[in-house]
Give the backbone structure.
Amino acid sequence: MRNRCNKLFVILFVFFILSSTFSMMTVNFLSIEDETEISLIESLEAGEQINEGPLFSGYDPVIHQMMNETEDSNIYDYIDTLQNFENEDGIRTRRDGTLGFEKAVNWTSHKLNSFGLDVFRQNFTYSKGESSNVIAELSGSDPRLEDETYIIGAHLDSINSDEENKSAPGADDNGSGIALILEAARILSQYEFNRTIRFAAWGAEELGLHGSSHYASNIDPTEEDIRGKFNYDMVGYEEDGLAITHHANTQSNWMLDYKSKVAKSYDIDINFTYEYDSNLTASDHSSFWNEGYDATLSIETEFNPHYHSEEDTVDKLTIPQITKLTSHAVGTIAHLAEEEEPPSVELETPKGGESWEPHSEEGITWHTKKGSRNITGIDLKYTLDNGSSWTNIGTNLNDTGSYLWTVPESHTNEAKIQIIVYDDHEMSAHDISGSFTIEKDEDEKEIPGFTFPVMIFGVLLALILHSDEQLSKKQNFFETLVPTR
Ligand SMILES: [Zn+2]
């Protein structure tokens, strides 16, 4: 028996070596074959969604025309008028609660109304008294998009930080911002846009952002869809060439990207700085941040040394900086208000976590939503390596919502499906499934790796048993020679 045991051990060992070698050969062979099938199309990853904002559609000659309508003389006149409003004592100020501020509210309302806009005065009370915001609206012309609203605003009040009753002409802070809003309103009101644009002049900013905070905290998100607020505060001073800094908090970073694209497409001749992930909260945009809305602040890069003093007058400002920034604001708002909606798509199956068998037919399903244009086609792709490379399943497919896919020969837990939807204006969207597994059923999987070794094992076993048989025959022969006892 000992002899037999040794032989069996050798047989099993040979069997084990052969079996594992053959299995490895099979796997290697398969993956080499699969790699040759994969073309490196693109590398995309499924990941968390960041707020990318609307797509920028690029240069538009009509919008360029609007941007060119800004006038230095208008900007100058608006600021000159604003800085000369006087209180009861004949002191130039628009400090909140004074007659100067009241005059500014009336004049701003009248001005916005003269552009053909619907204007309303939003009164509010706060810790230090009563005040008002002036809001004008240019309603969107597309019934599907008119709820989507962009706000462009600036504070109307001024302050002298030395003394309450001292002169506060507030030419830069913030006659410059109001002048920009008025000039943008004058131009934009002559056109129609898909979405709604609101022009705002805030009260009581200098006393604690009260006007904008009252407005932002009273937005009813079930009634209106505020897409972004553009705030302008102190934009007329420059010391060393035209220079403006744009601030956005993290969720509003897309607004800086968008502003930058507009500036490049229309060659805006101002040195722009973009402060991403900014935490500068010292103006009305932060009232919108506080309520979760996207907002930016544009402010001069070099600070006006005369702000909050009687020296803040129009003669110290560089009017072309405000005019050019107004052009940029007009372009940005016009684009956003008019921008076409890209389509959207969501993969339904596979969701991820499934296990599909090679060569089986599986249903890929999805939902699309059309944007402004009609969907013209769908591309489907798969990856076997977590998105390092993608292979086409089909291109320019009809948007039928489902596709029967023959799963490729593979063994992976890093498979994903990607769907791309595009419309007749070359706008597109994509979605990527979670990871799923492609593997053979356990019973079947054993077969290719085992058939060959089992055959070898069988042959070897037969040979050994045969030689054992021969040996025992010999033993029997010798036993016959031994005399029986
Ligand atoms: Zn200010």
Summary: Residues 155, 173-174, 205, 233-234 surround zinc ion (CB under 6 Å). Residues 21-49 have pLDDT under 50 and may be disordered.
